[in-house]
Specification:
- The termini are far apart.
- This protein folds into two domains: about 160 residues, Rossmann fold, CATH 3.40.50.150; about 35 residues, no CATH class.
- It has a seven-stranded mixed sheet, sandwiched between helices.
- The protein has nine helices and seven strands.
- Strand 2, helix 5 and strand 3 form a beta-alpha-beta unit.
- The longest helix has 23 residues.
Length: about 240
């Protein structure tokens, strides 16, 4: 059966459904060889700090088995290893997995259909990928399924500051400078125009926590930091 085609009605429209799935997969396959360098540049080197904060938010003991969901090139997996945990990385992009730089076991799969038994993991982390899933609720439900009761979930992603001044500065950098840097350094202006806009896929912070709760988590919360440009979503499996 052919893929459903989504008609883009204006230049600022973001793809949905099957069109989004195909666009995201193709984009990350293209970006993979230069992805890490661009992350360092556009985050001003702060991405390392954000990942460490995500791992700390799990609050799990050493040797815990943790799924790195949408693991990309394996940065979060390496941070988990450094914290004494045992990561397994999973990503939908074959291109990203091909250039991954981690000793963690890796597999290619869809976050909405994890090839994992029930209650398999002590924790799940997800780095800057929530906005790239087609159906976030389905991904949260799968995370609940594969986490043991009491297991922890922590996801870090981009956000838009609530403060008008900080929001304006965020727009200048991420919607102005980042696409230019993407064209110069990654030779892919389209991808780095999409990535800042893709924060529009995410619901408001309170609703994001409610979606995680509806999937089977308690003690769900969102924290914003770096001036509100980054969010951290956490919860505990019921």
């Amino acid at each position: 059966m052919g893929a459903r085609v989504i008609t883009v009605k204006h230049e600022n429209a973001l793809p949905e459904g099957t069109a989004k799935r195909q666009a995201v997969e193709g984009m990350f396959d293209r970006l993979a060889p230069r992805y890490d360098r661009m992350n360092r540049v556009i985050s001003l080197g702060l991405d390392r700090r954000w990942r460490r904060r995500t791992v700390a938010a799990l609050d799990l003991p050493p040797e815990s088995l943790v799924l790195d969901l949408a693991c990309g090139t394996g940065d979060l997996s390496n941070d988990l290893t450094a914290a004494g945990m045992s990561p397994i990385g999973l990503d939908f992009s074959a291109g990203m997995l091909a250039v991954a730089h981690t000793c963690a076991p890796l597999t290619r799969a869809d976050g909405a259909a994890l090839p994992v038994r029930h209650d398999a993991f002590d924790g799940i982390v997800c780095g800057f990928a929530l906005r790239n899933f087609v159906e976030l609720g389905a991904v949260f439900r799968e995370c609940a399924r594969v986490l043991r009761p009491g297991g922890r979930f922590a996801a870090v992603d981009a956000s838009v500051p609530a403060n008008p001044v900080l929001r304006a500065g965020n727009a200048v950098w991420f919607r102005g400078a980042v696409p230019l840097l993407g064209r110069l350094l990654a030779r892919d202006a389209d991808a780095y125009q999409y990535l800042p806009k893709s924060t529009a896929y995410l619901p408001e912070l309170d609703e994001l926590a409610r979606q995680l709760a509806r999937a089977g988590f308690y003690d769900t919360r969102t924290d914003a930091f770096t001036g509100g440009s980054v969010l951290l979503l956490t919860g505990t499996r019921s």
